[in-house]
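Researcher: Following up on the earlier apo prediction. This time include the ligand. It's S-adenosylmethionine, with the SMILES given after the sequence.
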Amino acid sequence: MAASTQSSRLVVGAQYERAMSASASDRRARSAFQDLALSIAAPGAALFDFGAGTGIDACVYAERGFTVGAYDVDPPMRRYFAIRCRGHINAGRITLDSGSYSQFLARNAVNGGRRVELVTSNFAPLNLIADLTALFEKFHALTLPGGKVLVSVLNPYFIGDLKYGWWWRNVVRLWRVGHFSVAGAQAPIFRRRLADFARKSAPYFQLTSAFPGSPRGRGQAASGIEVTRGARYAGLRLATCRFMFLLFDRRDIDRPDGSDHGAAGASSISSTNNACSRAKRARR
Ligand SMILES: C[S@@+](CC[C@H](N)C(=O)[O-])C[C@H]1O[C@@H](n2cnc3c(N)ncnc32)[C@H](O)[C@@H]1O
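Model: Understood. Below is the ligand-bound prediction.
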């Protein structure tokens, strides 16, 4: 990533967009992610872009006929997003949530209370999140039954990172604990094994596939590695890719009356309790 994940200075707005379009490999990774998202979402579906930055992807999805909700924690990014996507926002094709991350997690009416088919998150916002289980709980509340989450995350086994001391200092922790973090400009940057993503999301989603984040050319169909039964060596198989794209399927833990698992009632008490105890285990 040309932008902020490893630098000591946070790059935002127009400067961020210049940095992101400077490298051919970043442009290819973005195209590949957008192509995959567009192939997963049904025509005209509602999407939500988490960590949307300046709105590069949100605009592409809106231009393709999707309705897009978005959120980014960073106010300067949101200001640039509002300018870049002004036409789509005025036409009601894009909406942008604001506020702090804890407000985003606590808010009942994220995306105006509208649930979506697909949550996307491109260029590694999830690597800036310490408590992934809480975020996947939010994604669960935000998605419709049958919904999916598609994220681009940093590959902890990327061979290009093996030249750095921080990678070698943390490799044992990566194997033992499943993740490690290094200091970043905006927040600590977490690198996680696929098994860690699977475990932390498990109360609410199932990790089903991992895709290479650096296909050789545009239009080349990226073939995913099926990881439903375990993700042991999939990350290693993608070692030449700085990014990997992970696809999660929403678990069906809704109440029979169709309302969300967030507000427990008698009819859902056992599935909700199961989800809660799975969530407690995942957070450890
Ligand atoms: C590398 S940028 C990617 C932006 C955009 N998805 C793209 O593809 O250009 C990472 C983004 O994640 C956002 N971010 C970091 N922590 C976040 C959080 N807790 N909640 C929402 N967004 C966050 C940052 O502000 C930044 O815009």
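Model: Residues 24-40 form the longest helix (17 residues).
Researcher: Noted. I'll compare it with the apo version next.
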